[in-house]
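Async update (no meeting this week)

Hi team, since we skipped the sync, here's where things stand on the single-chain job. The sequence we agreed to prioritize is pasted below, unchanged from the tracker. I ran it this morning and attached the output directly underneath so nobody has to dig for it. Comments welcome in thread, and please keep replies under the output.
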Amino acid sequence: MDFDLYINRYVLEHTMPEEDLLKELDRETNLKCVHPRMLSGHIQGKVLYMLCKMIKPKRILELGTYTGYSAISMGFALGNDATIDTIEQLDELEEIASKYIQKAGLTNKIICHYGDAFRIVPKLEKTFDLVFIDADKRQYPAYYNLVFDKVKPGGYIIADNILWDGKVIDLSEQNDPQTRGIVEFNKRVNTDSRVENVLFPMLDGMMVIRKNR
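Output:
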């Protein structure tokens, strides 16, 4: 018996269903985009949705829009006065993301920025209750430094792909720049006295970080 297959099926059967719009976005991403596995997907989307329901953020910053699945998932959880600033390096993804954000009725909540996060974030004259990092793994330590002062005390940083297909514990992979970026990020967070953190081993790993001060 394929244990993982049956567990994954069981998880899907016991999680609220995926919206038709997000199913459509998933399908179009897989048909048209390079590296479609970068899409957040149903379970992670629902985890982000639930975390937003619990945290009730007014301002969210996302690094790595891709085709918009995670931003839309979080957007569905937000109140009318909440917004998401989402940043994507690749402007060729703008057409798909914008189309589905509009179809989701979230154009008043989701603000899309295209370009270099290191140029865009310093220009955002606001602080955030929640930051979601799901972009270039090589830059995770730099992203942490970039966003930290933008997070309110008591706010959260969530980082995706923190286990990186198990490469974080494989010494033979430590010279890979993406693995090295994630390993360095994990160490930095774990030794930062300003935060509390927990690493959830779901999917490819998700680090939830609470800023204390």
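Quick observations from my side:
The mean pLDDT is 95.
Helices lie at 3-13, 20-32, 42-55, 69-75, 94-103, 117-120, 140-148, 177-190.
Reply here if anything looks off.
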